[in-house]
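Technical appendix A lists one of the benchmark inputs used to test multi-chain prediction within the project. The record comprises two sequence entries:
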Amino acid sequence: MSPSIMTKGAIDCDIHPSVPNIEALLPYFNDHWRDTISQRGVHDLQTIAYPKNAPLTARPDWRPKLGMPAADANTISTQALDTFQTSIAICNCLYGVQLLMSEDLAAAFASAVNDWMIAELLNKDPRLRASIVIPTQNSEMAVAEIERVASDPRFVSILMLVMDEKPLGRRSYWPIYAAAQRHNMPICVHAGSAYKHPVTSVGWPSYYAEDYASQAPAFHNMVSSFICEGVFSEYPDLKVVLAESGFSWLPAHLWRLTKFWRGLRAEIPWVDRTPTEIARDHIRLTLQPVDAPPTSEQLERLMDHMGSDEMIIFSTDYPHWQFDGVDVIPDGISKELATKIMVENPKNTYPRLQ
Amino acid sequence: MSKYVVAAANEILPGQRKLVNVRGRPILIFNLDGDYFGILDRCPHQGASLCKGQLVGLVESDRPGQYNFTRNNEIIRCAWHGWEFDIRTGKSRCEPEKIKATQYNINTKTGSEIIEEAYEAETFDVAVEDNYVVVHL
């Protein structure tokens, strides 16, 4: 069986359309913001999270001669969906909305990006879905944006960055989680930073390799924050998808958190069962980039440590360069597990896909 | 099952604890409002002496940010890693069905009962009119 057939019908939970340029968004701003963008000379909101020329940012065969990769529905449909024969792909648009200092400007950009996605992506290929881009700078405005577009069933989750202004479990974010639960959407926490802080807790690293690898400790912090702050105690139906996070680090981190929780649980009495159990019920992780060990025996051991075959959900991370050809399912994942990862687990994670 | 007299009842007043040794086993006896409880003086985690731990209350919560504090001094918190054990049941607070301190049956008997029923009171002079703490092994 060729791998392309193997992923036939799969649900791809993490692909990245690019906003082609600021002009593409202009129709989706009101006159004031359109004028502001022109007056202030806002020419682009691409961030340093995925530098345009970094090999990781776009696979060579998915990189256009000119302009941004994955910047229109036709390209995405052909390269991402047709190639892998996936039935559905969820667009997580990484644009610099969360970086802006002005809450009002951020809200305007979030709305523009969502409206651009509706018009240019969702309306053009029925297989596409999207995460709602929100201005995390202000939870009230974020909820307003969720309420504005949530009636569109093609929005299936809500996008946040793993490194925002504060740890994501903090109560100031809870109105967003209440809205997510109300509308049957998971929160998708994606790798990346709002750059309100250095990307490591002790300051800026020198190299991109360090920056990219430091996403994992940021995910550790967010898993701890969501659990310890009691987000899942307050919103028992909420799921959090960690996207582009890797997953090999999770069992070790949960083991450590559970170990300390046993002695410190009186501090957070709403955490009334082990963090490991809570994570199994509420945390999901996308497949690519796979940071798993190379052999099937080692991979089986890792899955055993995770203690659940329901946590990993299929993703290609298109157009990021995580693998070549169609080798998206790593060796060592059994056919049975691959089937769960590709269809069943995503459906159980995103109620709007059922 | 053997019964051992380990202390005179008035040696361990409400709120107090006493470490006794019964056939080589260190057993920690507590008096909670007149009821006696006994657990092995060994934390099931790494074997620390629970006797050296702090007595604390029970903290529970209905939702994040809410702290319900009850049962003051009915929980012993291990001095090494802070694991809490319910003195009344021996069960840990973190994983009560999985992690437990070994519990012993404790009750009080009068001196006359002890003399009549020939309890083992190796180190005691038992007086008929007094009450005694008995460990069942």
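The helical segments of chain B are 111-116. Chain B touches chain A at residues 45, 56, 59-68, 78, 81-84, 92-95, 99 (CB under 8 Å). Comparable benchmark entries are summarised in Table A2.
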